[in-house]
Design a protein that fits this description.
Keywords: Methyltransferase, Transferase. One of its GO terms (molecular function) is S-adenosylmethionine-dependent methyltransferase activity. This is Chemotaxis protein methyltransferase CheR. The protein is an alpha/beta fold and 292 residues long. It contains twelve helices and ten strands. Helix content is 41%, strand content 15%. The longest helix has 18 residues.
Length: 292
């Protein structure tokens, strides 16, 4: 069950100030599950900035505008949980159904994918691996994968392509690990070929500058969970502006477009996916089941 957001007014003292900073900078509201872990998440920030506790941290943030400290706090409080091929059935549907359908209908031989809220990049690298493993199908195509996240720390790691042994053991098949990653000390680094496929950008979904034009496949999974209904609708409107009649949108398992505006409806062919309602041809809405 998805925990409801915790209103900032229910938090006390320093926690309320830090939660307010996160909401102001990212639009995210701390859920109950994340709020009680706040002190643990901020421990490295306290240590690195010579602070004793959250009260001292909040006092410094209030006393002077320290952009660097603010960014460190925001990065620490963001949920950057990710793994390779997270929800494997989704990646199987992408490979076996969604991408073949796009391949069959696109006439410009260009595939454009946007991974919004990409965290440390495992989702984008998983897509790149599936595409490279099916290279014959995409021969002669221009493939663009853009991945964005509001966390500068997450994007820096994603760009580096370096993942720990624990990271690669979570969802990455041994064959793909040996084929597409190289040892880097005690860690593993994505091959230059994979890294070149992905354009990682630091970006804010409420002031988005990175996306351009329309994307064939849009993934915004486990991002809307942390927003108010109004902000969820704003994000869906942004995604709609960067989609076209044949685009496919994928959200997280606990997310839906129901009650979040009229930009998307449940897709007629791909279970759990969404199509852009406004772009459907006349008469097609009746052939697409309502989201529920």
């Amino acid at each position: 069950m998805v925990m409801p957001p915790t209103p900032a007014s229910t938090l006390q003292g320093a926690a309320r100030i830090l939660s307010g900073l996160l909401e102001a900078r990212t639009g995210q509201i701390l859920t109950e599950g994340r709020a009680w872990r706040m002190e643990t998440a901020l421990r490295p920030v306290l240590r690195n900035h010579g602070l004793n506790d959250m009260d001292e941290l909040a006092a410094r943030l209030l006393r002077k505008g320290d952009a660097r400290l603010e960014q460190h706090v925001v990065d620490a409080l963001l949920n950057n949980e990710s793994s390779f091929f997270r929800d494997l059935q989704i990646f199987d549907m992408i490979q076996r159904q969604i991408l073949p359908a796009i391949h069959a209908t696109k006439t410009d031989r260009t595939l454009r994918i946007w991974s919004a809220g990409c965290s440390t990049g495992q989702e984008a690298y998983s897509l790149a691996i599936r595409l490279r493993n099916d290279a014959a199908r995409w021969s002669g195509w221009r493939i663009e994968i853009m991945a964005t996240d509001i966390s500068t720390a997450a994007i820096d790691q994603a760009r580096s392509g370096i993942f720990s042994q624990m990271d690669v053991q979570r969802g990455l098949a041994v064959g793909d690990l040996l084929k597409w990653f190289e040892p880097s000390g005690d860690d593993w680094r994505a091959s230059p070929e994979l890294r070149r496929m992905i354009d990682f950008r630091h970006d804010n979904l409420f002031d988005a500058k990175a996306p351009t034009g329309a994307y064939d496949l849009l993934l915004c999974r486990n991002v809307l969970l942390y927003f108010t209904p109004e902000r969820r609708q704003a994000v869906l409107s942004l995604l709609a502006r960067h989609s076209h009649a044949g685009s496919v949108l994928l959200l997280g398992a606990g997310e839906t477009v129901m009650g979040q505006g009229d930009d998307f409806i449940a897709h007629s062919e791909f279970r759990g996916a969404y199509a852009r309602q406004a772009a459907l041809p006349e008469g097609a809405i009746g052939r697409v089941r309502r989201a529920g």
